[in-house]
Amino acid sequence: MLGRLRSHLSYANVMATVALFVALGGTSYAATKLARNSVGATQIRSQAVGPSELKARAVSSSKLRRGAVTASKLSRSARESLRGAQGPVGSTGASGPPGPSGIVYRASVNSGSGLRGGNATEGSGGNGTYLIGFERSMSGCIFAATLVRVEGGGTVDPDPGRITAAEEGGRVRIRTYDSSGAVSAQPFHMIAIC
């Protein structure tokens, strides 16, 4: 029998067997000779221990340092169960300062400077330069204007040009231009937000 065993022995078989005994011996040594609590956070790689390596209820609140678990790390159902009942309505605070009026000043003007809609009180000019007035000064307001179709005046449908708007003497100065860049009578809508 010994002769039969020798015929199957090779260097690789012997070394594999020796390695197996060394590995098992080292694990057995570590399991029996390591002092209790000798493996701590400094000996464990970051994120090496996860939920699958912990037995149920192995970590309790006494083993967590303060602030280690935040609300964002809790499940939605856990957060909802921790939420208490809504308290009574508190007293009403002091009123704040009044906000903006919410009025948007607007005008629809045909190419002959006729006011066709909006809340403008005054419209004058023509030939591409218009002055639009409202019930208050337009100083400090923001303006937007666009060339659009407006009935009346000489031009109903505007050319594909451009338009400018600016405050002048408390009113809004509008200039309209045709596609060649020349000042030209064009219908428009404008708004002012103050």
What layout of secondary structure does this protein have?
Blueprint: H1 2-8, H2 11-33, H3 76-82, E1 104-109, E2 115-118, E3 122-126, E4 129-133, E5 142-147, E6 162-168, E7 171-177, E8 188-193
Helix content: 10-25%
Percent in strands: 15-25%
SSE pattern, N- to C-terminal: HHHEEEEEEEE
- Give a short account of the largest sheet: 4 strands, antiparallel
Broad structural category: alpha+beta
Tell me the span between the first and last alpha carbons.
Answer: 107 Å
Structure description:
By secondary structure, the chain is of the alpha+beta class. The chain has a domain of 84 residues. The protein contains 3 helices and 8 strands. A 4-stranded antiparallel sheet has the order 2-1-8-5, with no helix packed on it. Strand 1 and strand 2 form a beta hairpin. The model has no long low-confidence stretch (mean pLDDT 81).
Name a few traits of the molecule.
194 residues; alpha+beta; four-stranded antiparallel beta sheet; 3 helices; elongated
